[in-house]
Amino acid sequence: MTATAFILFGSFFLFMLLSVPIGISLGLSGVVTALYSTNISITFLTQGLVTSTDNFALMAVPFFILAGEIMGKGGISGRLFALANVFVGRFTGGFAMAAVITAMFFAAISGSGPATVAAVGGIMIPAMVSQGYDKKFATAVVVSAGSLGIIIPPSIPMVLFGVSGNQSIGDLFMGGIFPGILMGFTIIAWIYFYSKKKNYKGNNEPFSIKEMWSALYRAKWSLLVPILILGGIYGGIFTPTEAAVVAVVYSAVVGFVLHRELTIAGFKPILADAALNSVVILLIIGTANTFGTILSMEQMPKAFADALLSLSDNKFTIVLLLLLLLLIVGCFLDTSAAVIIFTPILLPVAIGIGVDPIHFGVLMISALALGFLTPPLGVNLFVGSGISGLSVSTIVRAVVPFFIVLLIALMFITFIPSLSLLLTQ
Length: 425
Description:
425 residues; globular
């Protein structure tokens, strides 16, 4: 490692240890490095901060955030849960299963893990507790299912990967469908076995075609969102960025006109929350990009690739090492920052050993998604704690079995590329 790279990483981790926000830490570490190095100027960092966010594809990020905020407060969660409960509510652990399916549906709307936990958990956790479920288990269910928010399309980190790695965002979206479903159903499988042990019964109500059609009718506008987005992209009607704008317009029409659960007064906080979340992510994108540029100037990606390839010439060994690195990174770095920083470093390594870039993108996002469940940064843990009132440490212990089954699903995603590539061919 060069002295410049040491200064960059050392100052970054120092700021993180001092609890400086991730976006600020990335920017300050770049400033410290520029003051040390004669090859990097503050002007360069300032220009990089602006130019890295001046990207048409990145406009999808604030629009998807706004669409998720609107849908989250527009009466979507309750309708989706009622529909899911019709299909699985009668099974052992059915109420918890319905919560996971609701989270999977909402993931196809919000593109964000914490947003999924917030929108679904506010309704599902109290509902599960009222049905006799242990609060720790109920919270762990929603927190774990919320991690699917960045895997099932649309996904904000996939947009960032596509921009950073120069890959098709539409293909990444399609690649995330089956892996997201697989991870969702591994959670459901664990819920079933755990509920058998704890005797969490279903609602004992027989399946009713009439009730199913009624629930489908109430949730129809919500279910059209992923069809509209993915169908529009792959039908050549609009780009992923334009799809995000369409999602905002559609969600506003649903919330104001069709569901009539949004008001002008209630819309102002939605805009404020979306703006705040967008600013945070775009700041991270800008500072992470300059961080990554300094790494490239120091030829760190090449050095890392050479070092990794020198450890083994076995493709599967290198892929497992990449996975281990991503799981560790997910514990400490915000997902957006991790994608921006590590895509230029890891993608060439993956391509060099014959891994399809779309498959690697899905794999990378899936591995980082587990970071939502791991301290110290696990955002879903803090959102779940705020909703349930349980301590983060209590939730962490309850999440461990879910983390294990999701890790098993990640192995399937890793070594069965067709799960990610089937819909892109």
